[in-house]
Amino acid sequence: MSLKDKTAVITGSTGELGSALALALAQAGCHCICHYNNSKEKAQQLITNIKQYSVNATAIQADLTEPGQIETLFEKAKPFGTPQILINSAAIFETTPLDKVTLDQARKFFDLNVTAALLTAKAFAAGLKDATGKIINIADIAAIRPWSEYSLYCASKAALIGATKALAKELAPNIMVNAIAPGIATWPTKMTPEEEKRQLSFIPMGRFAETKEIAAAMIFLLENDYITGQTLIIAGGRAI
């Protein structure tokens, strides 16, 4: 797939990784539909940055845990052309020690990290009809090498990898579906020196990922027309 002049929908585009993915798509010539939920100012700044690459871009607000808002997201994207690329980057990342886990918490994690990705894929595929499309789900190394006290996050990302494989079978041959499982590139809070040292000890490469390295993996998968149902691990050897 040539990416130039294709339209891409990026969910969770205002996160640090989501923004990097959106900018990489813009650099490749894609028009970008940047989804956000609460971060309107970040979304507007992202659109400004994207337009420097002479492509079209718009920010659309939606709560992806509400199916009707997913449909509205794709309706609002129509003036920019039929999206042929979907990047599912929206996610919740929080610690959840088992003694604190509740049913409502579990639903929150799975609603956004798994169900929303499935429903955006459904809306995306319906709009494509018989055209070629690419879906990339942003999973996590934690789906493969789980962390203590993050059971809901790890389980939901593992489910997303399972959904990726199932969708790849169901939507072939016109739509290819893959996942990327990054290692640590961003962290919602500043690590203590002790925690950083501990995390680095698990990584043969001895450093955390850079968002541009994850974005490069995304571009590789989008440009290849014979890879589907795979999870590309970008974790500096952490999964070995």
Keyword list:
Rossmann fold; alpha/beta; 7 strands; 7-stranded parallel beta sheet; 240 residues; single chain; 7 helices; 16% strand
> What is the averaged pLDDT score?
95
CATH architecture: 3-Layer(aba) Sandwich
Distance between the termini: 31 Å
The CATH topology name reads Rossmann fold
Structure, briefly:
The chain is α/β, with parallel strands linked by helices.
Give your account of this protein's structure:
This protein is of the alpha/beta class. It has a single domain (about 5-235), classed as Rossmann fold (3-Layer(aba) Sandwich). Helix content is about 45%, strand content about 15%. It contains 7 helices and 7 strands, in the order E-H-E-H-E-H-E-H-E-H-E-H-H-E. The protein has helices at about 15-25, 40-50, 65-75, 105-130, 150-170, 195-200, 210-225; strands spanning about 5-10, 30-35, 55-60, 85-90, 135-140, 175-180, 230-235. The protein has a 7-stranded parallel beta sheet, sandwiched between helices. Helix 3 runs parallel beside helix 4 (about 105-130) and helix 4 (about 105-130) runs parallel beside helix 5 (about 150-170). The longest helix is centred in the middle third of the chain and has 26 residues, at about 105-130.
